Amino acid sequence: MILHSLPDTPAADEPRPPLIIRYAFLVLLLFSGLFVEAQQNISLSADDMQRVRDVEVFRPELADRHVHYGFGTSRQQRFNPFYHVLSSCMYLYQRCVSPVLSRSCAYAPSCSGYSKKLVAEYGLVKGVLCSADRLMRCNRITLADPATYSLINPSDGHIHESVHRYRLR
Question: Which tens digit of pLDDT belongs to each residue from 110-153?
Fold first, then answer.
């Protein structure tokens, strides 16, 4: 019985990655542990983390979230289907989804209430874009940023903002 050994080299028709790519992958694999360790070293200091934990954020009352959903007095609000769809979505979010979420907003007014004010002040397109800016800034990292320490209201632990922040000067 003759045993055939498997060839050590791949068949000629199989494509092989270039040698430089294989070595680059090997180097990245070897140094990936260093990259992870470096990311862990860029964490917040213990004092900064304690400041973030000490900030008391409260949930606003439902009275702060009241809006006349779809029952506007202007003719445009009464007959605009986009107004009714968007206001219904906001109503469902504020009444059903938001109370179930365990997190609270770092800003006052809440992000959803602020979004309503922005859309009412600047219209749909600019209001949604400004709301997206606000939603991207609403996180715990914002509270840990030393630049925002002076903006936090000590009485309620929120950062108070006005819709006029986005007004062109």
Answer: 888 898 888 888 888 898 899 999 988 888 888 788 888 888 88
DSSP H helical ranges for 42-80: 46-54, 75-79
State how far the Cα of 168 lies from the Cα of 7, in Å rounded to an integer.
72
Judge whether 41 lies within some domain. Answer: no
- 110 found inside a domain: yes
Yes or no: say if 109 and 120 are a contact pair by the CB < 8 Å rule. Answer: no
Instruction: Give the N- to C-terminal CA distance of the chain in Å, as an integer.
Output: 91
For 48-97, write each residue's pLDDT tens digit: 767 767 766 555 555 555 555 444 555 555 567 777 788 888 888 888 88
Cα-only R_g, the chain: 27
Residue 109 sits in which domain range?
59-166
Assess contact for 160 and 113: CB atoms under 8 A: no
